[in-house]
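Entry 12.
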Amino acid sequence: MTEVRNSLDVTDSKRFLVVLDVDSTLIENEAIELLAAEAGSLDLVAAVTERAMRGELDFAESLRERVSTLAGLPESVFDTVRSHITLTQGAQKLIATVKAQGGSVGVVSGGFHELLDPLAESLGLDFWKANRLEIKDGILTGKVLGDIVDAQAKADTLIEWAEATATPLSQTVAIGDGANDLKMMAVAGLGIAFCAKPVVQDKADVALKERDLSKALELIGL
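Predicted 3D structure (tokens):
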């Protein structure tokens, strides 16, 4: 089911940019929950994640709380967790079609570079950005390095990538599922809520309710 309040036609444009959220959008999983399962803190982390995605908690604060439960995990946990990551149906078709038509594709995530980097490279993405976990002597410390990729950072990143590709904001598309994606949807030419929380469906230009990312192609004129 698709609820459409706005659409975009990029067929007459020489440049366009599609930016996706990662957790529960590009992939079926929540990266922090996969790590928490290895740390024995899944129930706590899943509950906090759900509240954060509904917009009930400050994302940065909630992420620090969840990451703190990962302290003591060995760095090798990333290899274990990567094997559990599942791409969302239609993701590869969406990316390949956009790039074949001359567009650029980026992903911006409240998750972690340690898991995202190999996936982004394998998909041939043009841009990607995520948080980075602190690791000392091969062990996760339970802390995040640098500034956290929150809602404002996602919006700023979309603008940065649009400028880097000389793409007008009117020719950008943002796809996500949580409250953390609303600001980048607001600055994009088209905001697509993908199987999203109610607050996101209400504010997005388009609400896709079928878990198939290729369904977004028609909405952007491809």
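Annotation: The beta strands are 2-4, 17-20, 104-112, 127-136, 139-145, 172-176, 190-194, 206-208. The domain at 2-29+86-219 is CATH 3.40.50.1000 (Rossmann fold).
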